[in-house]
């Protein structure tokens, strides 16, 4: 039985539970490109020779580069922030203030992990001024993901991390690449949008443009594109030129009351489907 690997970050919309399904749908290839890496569950649970891993969130990519380059030092330094002294709202808000004021990339990476595990519900959110503003999470004992960090660092030897717009990443794909896109999802209601995690909105125009980018790249080079999103009338419309669409039921992971969490339909739209793969 293949061992599944969890991301070291908590992440709204993370793909750990869907990684097996997505992995089966991804075509074979030497290099996987992810324009929206997020917590990296697909990266961690696939087996390509190379990876191009991108995100518009500069703090996230900075963290990944540091875990890749100096894992031992980072893990030991980060572990010092995971104790009862630091699991305190006043300490949390003080460190959050320091994070928003510092330009030191290494210190920001430590605080980013600390806030991710001590902040509310795995959210990553910034205000209009670019300040991280996720509130304290009130957890009894936040988990320090030492083993997950170690595995991520080991796996990242195959990866190149970049921070660009999704268009640039997709447009630079080459013959034989496989592209998996996990953009911020189309909201199911006017209050359900989580697109501000990077400080840059991802609205309906960007959603439609991503579908256009998938259509364009498969006509430019020999590649395949798999996109995940909520299954709605609107997303089915923008993905109408995909070769195949698969709908699945997934438990919602973002809710103030865990007992009220429900399943929602998600879709996987595959462009340029190889004959050897079927949905």
For the structure shown, list the relevant keywords:
279 residues; alpha/beta; Rossmann fold; Adenine-specific Methyltransferase, domain 2; 2 domains; 7 strands; 15% strand
**How are the strands of the largest sheet arranged?**
3-2-1-4-5-7-6
The CATH top-level class label of the largest domain: Alpha Beta
Tell me the fraction of residues in β-strands, as a range.
Answer: 15-25%
Our count of domains comes out at 2
CATH superfamily descriptor of the largest domain: Vaccinia Virus protein VP39
The gist of it:
The chain contains ten helices and seven strands.
Structural features, described:
Strands 3-2-1-4-5-7-6 form a seven-stranded mixed beta sheet. β1, α2 and β2 (50-54) form a beta-alpha-beta unit. It has two domains: 19-58 and 149-271, Vaccinia Virus protein VP39 (Rossmann fold, 3-Layer(aba) Sandwich); 66-147, Adenine-specific Methyltransferase, Domain 2 (Adenine-specific Methyltransferase, domain 2, Orthogonal Bundle), CATH 1.10.1020. α4 packs antiparallel against α7 (146-155). It has ten helices and seven strands. It is of the alpha/beta class and 279 residues long.
């Amino acid at each position: 039985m293949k061992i599944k690997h969890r991301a070291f970050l908590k992440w709204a919309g993370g793909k750990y539970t869907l990684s097996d399904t997505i992995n089966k749908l991804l075509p074979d290839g030497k290099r996987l490109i992810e324009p929206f890496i997020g917590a990296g569950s697909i990266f961690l649970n696939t087996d390509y020779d190379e990876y191009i891993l991108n995100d518009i969130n500069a703090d996230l990519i900075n963290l990944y580069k540091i875990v890749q380059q100096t894992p031992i030092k980072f893990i030991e330094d980060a572990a010092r922030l995971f104790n009862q002294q630091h699991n305190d709202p006043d300490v949390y808000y003080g460190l959050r203030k320091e994070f928003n004021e510092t330009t030191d990339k290494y210190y920001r990476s430590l605080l980013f992990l600390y806030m991710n595990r001590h902040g509310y519900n795995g959210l990553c959110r910034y205000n209009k001024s670019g300040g991280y503003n996720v509130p304290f999470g009130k957890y009894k004992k936040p988990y320090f993901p030492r083993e997950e960090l170690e595995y991520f660092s080991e796996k990242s030897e195959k990866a190149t991390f970049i921070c660009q717009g999704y268009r640039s990443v997709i447009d630079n794909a080459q013959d034989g690449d496989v592209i998996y896109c996990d953009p911020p999802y189309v909201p199911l209601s006017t209050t359900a949008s989580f697109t501000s995690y990077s400080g840059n909105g991802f609205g309906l125009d960007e959603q439609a443009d991503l579908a256009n980018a998938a259509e364009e790249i498969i006509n430019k080079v020999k590649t395949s594109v798999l996109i995940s999103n909520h299954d709605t009338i609107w997303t089915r419309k923008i993905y109408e030129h995909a070769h195949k669409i698969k709908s699945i039921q997934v438990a919602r992971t973002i809710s103030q009351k865990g007992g009220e969490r429900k399943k929602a339909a998600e879709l996987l739209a595959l462009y340029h489907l190889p004959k050897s793969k079927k949905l």
